[in-house]
Amino acid sequence: MPESKRIIVVGAGWAGLSATYHLAQQGYQVTLLEAASQPGGLVAGWKTPGGRSVEGGIHGFWYPYRNIFRLVEHLNLDPFTPFTRSAQYSPQGLEVESPIFQDEIQLPAPLGTFFYPKFKRLPLIDRLSALPLLHAVLDFDNSEAAWQRYDKMTARELFKQYGVSARLYREAFEPMLLVGLFAPGEQCSAAAALGMLYYFILAHQPNFDVVWCRGTVGEMIFKPWVREIQKLGGQVLTNQRVTDLMLKENGQVQSVICENDRFEGDAVVFALSVIGIKRIIARSKTLNQYPEFRNLMNLNGIDVLATRLWFDQKVPIPLPSNACFGFDSTTGWTFFDLNALHDDYKEETGSVIEADFYHANQLLPMTDRQIVAKVYRDLLTCLPQLKEAKIIDKSVIRVRQGVTHFSPGSYQYLLHRKTTIPNLFLSGDWIITDHGSWSQEKAYVTGLEAANEVIDYFKTGEKAQIIPVEPDELHIQFLRSINKGIRQVQDAVLPDFWLD
Fold it and tell me: Angle 438-45-275 (CA atoms, 0-180°, nearest 5)?
């Protein structure tokens, strides 16, 4: 590049590292600013005073995360476990065991994910009550019109409208919402619920298969990734809390202002969580001038509680990853056998269990001692064999507003990667994108999309090649085309006074 353009990326999570890495590969002079003491955001991980590894919750990597899997191959990393089986528990005990779906005979979507899990108490008649819901799945195609159609309805209203049995909702769908969208059904957008359930579970039989990082994501992926960025000439600066932007007279960003520093840039990429960008907007006199950013303050996050317990002896844990429901009415949680998943704990003489709680508003005010007592009590319900084991160490991490809340009506406030400010671009798991992915994969992909916007803007460099989501199976494509034709006829014939 004859004159290297200076790019400032704000936020060193999946989206920020993604944009920084690709732009550095294309010869841009990239500076990545992170408010925390190390890159990674929530998944960075750190050490306890005793030297034990902890992180702000365990993050799975699902079968359709094809762009992230390609990244770790490109970096010559081997951070993941094999695909694992999972189980689901309630206060009554074990409810469901799921296989590794790619190992089973492939059935047309979504039949495999309905019939292969081994339900202990849920009758087949209840599972069959979900069949009418397939109409909504077909009707929701991730388009803007589909989001507008379903977003202001709650997920609970959606399932009720389509005749899902109360038991199936209570024992299957709401637990999926609690650990997938991190909130109960009455607080989740129906559009987000359809998008998340389709991507992770319903689109293709293996989509629910998951691998786990064999240690903290920060150590296993982000640290070597940052080293590659630095080799390319990119700067990664921590403890840099952005407070404002300075604009030129033509309305373009001139510089990013931190508490004690100012960074000049030809373009800026914000790669932040919803809460992160809201904190900047709250302080920024510049962004406060724009309605799109002021309206972003209507979005919110969800509280997360991450706990890790060390026991004095090993106890048998049937499966390494587990989801739980029914212990608290609005809170879902997961627990993991870290002896089976993490390299650091394979040789531990006692069990190490991670238990993460989502929508944990009512738990965060509790003391660490109260939280540990509750976690142990809940674990005993699922694993009675823990009764003979004693807790010898613990970690309690409270993450306020830690994950995006896709609440009913939130879509109207989400932003696209281009903004009113011509050289300011956005990325993150809350950005509107046509890709169709969710969670970490979505954050990573939107980082690449923001990098491509920078390349378009300066007409220099090669765009990142993004692997699209696997196409719908042929029968789904056929049914969607029929549904689309019917909807077009209805829109043309029926008067425009029906409320969506």
Answer: 50
Q: How far apart are CA 60 and CA 398, in angstroms?
A: 19
Write out pLDDT tens, residues 135-191.
999 999 999 999 999 999 999 999 999 999 999 999 999 999 999 999 999 999 999
Tokens standing for residue 185: 């059904």
Q: What is the CATH number of domain 301-405?
A: 3.90.660.10
Query: Rounded to whole angstroms, what are the CA distances from 427 to 7, 22, 149, 287, 451?
Result: 14, 14, 24, 16, 9
Q: What is the CATH topology of the domain spanning 6-46+215-299+414-458?
A: FAD/NAD(P)-binding domain (3.50.50)
Q: What is the pLDDT of residues 93-150, one digit of tens each?
A: 999 999 999 999 999 999 999 899 999 999 989 999 999 999 999 999 999 999 999 9
Residue 294, sorted as left (phi over 0), alpha (psi -120 to 50) or beta, turns out to be alpha
Domain limits, the chain = 6-46+215-299+414-458, 301-405
Record the pTM.
Answer: 0.96
How do 352-358 and 331-337 pair as beta strands?
antiparallel
